[in-house]
Design brief:
It is an enzyme of class 1 (oxidoreductase). This protein is mainly beta. It has two domains: about 290 residues, Jelly Rolls, CATH 2.60.120; about 140 residues, Jelly Rolls (Sandwich), CATH 2.60.120.10. It contains two helices and 28 strands. A nine-stranded antiparallel beta sheet has the order 2-17-22-14-11-16-9-8-28. It has a six-stranded antiparallel beta sheet with strand order 7-26-25-27-24-23, with no helix packed on it. A four-stranded antiparallel beta sheet has the order 3-21-5-4, with no helix packed on it. Bound molecules: 2-(3,6-dihydroxyphenyl)acetic acid (OMD) and fe (ii) ion. The site of 2-(3,6-dihydroxyphenyl)acetic acid has 7 residues, from loops.
Length: about 450
């Protein structure tokens, strides 16, 4: 992206060039960036008067006293303090964007479910009106759990801004590009990349070149972090330098604008007379970022057996109970399958965690048919699932040669909490009524005699 591509009137920091143009590399770094030279105060955060007549404001992403290493905050130097970016609030109705707890008495969440892609349609839908909640888990008021959504976006937000006080959003595009113009800079996103938009950050979502569809994990809990690598050591999986945080960019634009706020599961609007994207410079470690899933370096079985899918964790949001995540974001991407004398596809299992999967691209080895790009599946807490008949037959008869598993990219939002289907997921989204039949034809092979069948 070059400076010419920016929204009209937006001024962006220079400095990051080459492969990082417009971004700064690293995960959880303490960054500093300024769109006008000499904006950031040196040696202090809150001078009596800020340069350029700006206002200093802190955005706290963790409690003041969160331990070092988890503590996140950013200092913003802005044209107006945020308090000028809101007015009196009015509640608005967004019936398709639901929050936990959302247990519909008429909906059965106990089951294995799969959906075809939700069609984009020709209705004008923005990032706000196009969000379609599929499942909710935990409780937004106690800041535990998550929601999974499909977004259908056919229109850019114009003079309209949004923030969620409830959640950090993990965005997984499947079709079409998105542009996030945020208080802290601009993120351009395409399928096979992901973005994290932190709680409280104000932004506008634009479509650079046509409709877009994808998935969102709304994290009510502690922020996503990189997983510990344990004995894997200091490299592989998601490497910190591949995460990219935008440089500062701001607009000084007076225009009648609407700000929508998600707060405790409810939506509110307020009207102001200017753009709230007015942060000229910032420093800190609480920021939005993106990551290219094609840079994920998977580690797997190099001799035998099929390890737990946790080896493919890109990001994990802790729950407070060690090793039991509020959410794991897991990636199944292309890789070599080399395990000897092993059933290579995922095994049959029941899981205390609940697994929502989405297909970004290609074919998933446990479900060669029916789980298509844009599609979603849900295997809820303690519900058995595993390869369909075709995948089982293939996995138990394939020659034990090294095979490149190509043309594949799926993800899993795995949470310790049961996921409840929304009414939309149960009644409006294209649910595959025959999904569970994929296990119907699995036959009994046992006949009481020893030996493999
Ligand atoms: O259910 C699934 O398809 C996801 C999954 C993949 C895997 O390789 C092992 C376990 C698991 O839950
Ligand atoms: Fe599973």
């Amino acid at each position: 992206m070059t400076t010419q591509d920016l929204p009209r009137g937006m001024i962006r920091a220079t400095g990051a060039t080459g492969p990082h143009e417009g971004y700064m590399p690293g995960f959880g770094n303490d960054f500093e960036t300024e769109a006008l030279p000499g904006t950031l105060p040196q040696g202090q955060n809150s001078p009596q008067k800020c340069n350029y007549g700006l206002y200093a404001e802190q955005l706290s992403g963790t409690a003041f006293t969160a331990p070092r290493g988890q503590n996140e905050r950013t200092w913003c130097y802005r044209i107006r303090p945020s308090v000028k970016h809101t007015g009196r609030f009015r509640k608005i109705d967004l019936p398709y964007w639901q929050s936990a707890p959302n247990v519909d008495p008429d909906v059965i969440s106990l089951g294995q479910y799969r959906w075809d892609p939700v069609p984009l349609g020709d209705q004008a839908l923005t990032w706000i009106t196009g969000m379609r909640t599929m499942t909710t888990a935990g409780d937004v008021n106690t800041q535990t759990g998550m929601a999974s959504h499909i977004y259908l976006v056919t229109a850019s937000m114009q003079d309209e801004y949004f923030f969620s006080a409830d959640s950090e959003l993990l965005v997984v595009p499947q079709e079409g590009r998105l542009r996030f113009c945020t208080e802290l800079g601009v993120i351009d996103l395409e399928p096979r990349e992901i973005a994290i938009i932190p709680r409280g950050l104000v932004y506008r979502v634009e479509l650079p070149d046509g409709p877009a569809r994808g998935f969102v994990c709304e994290n009510y809990g502690q922020k996503f972090d990189l997983p510990g690598r344990g004995p894997i050591g200091a490299n592989c999986l998601a490497n910190p330098r591949d995460f990219k945080c935008p440089v500062a960019a701001f607009e000084d634009r007076d225009a009648a604008s609407r700000v929508v706020i998600k707060w405790c599961g409810q939506f509110h609007e307020t009207f102001i007379d200017h753009s709230p994207l007015d942060v000229v410079a910032w420093h800190g470690n609480y920021c939005a970022y993106k990551y290219d899933l094609r840079t994920y370096s998977p580690v797997g079985a190099i001799l035998f057996d099929h390890p737990d899918p946790s080896i493919f964790t890109v990001l994990t949001a802790p729950s407070g109970q060690e090793g039991t995540a509020n959410i794991d974001f897991v990636l199944f991407r292309e890789r070599w399958m080399v395990a000897e004398h092993s059933f290579r596809p995922p095994w049959y299992h029941k899981n205390i965690m609940s697994e929502l999967m989405g297909n970004i691209h290609g074919i998933y080895d446990a479900k060669p048919k029916g789980f298509v790009p844009g599609g979603v599946s849900l295997h809820n807490m303690m519900l058995p699932h595993g390869p369909d008949r075709a995948a089982f037959e293939h996995g138990s008869t394939e020659p034990m040669q090294p095979v490149k598993q190509d043309n594949t990219m799926q993800f899993m939002f795995e949470t310790r909490f049961p996921q409840h289907l929304t009414r939309f997921a149960a009644t409006e989204a294209p649910l595959q009524d025959d999904y569970i039949d994929c296990w119907d034809s699995i036959e009994k092979k046992f006949d009481g005699t020893p030996g493999t069948k």
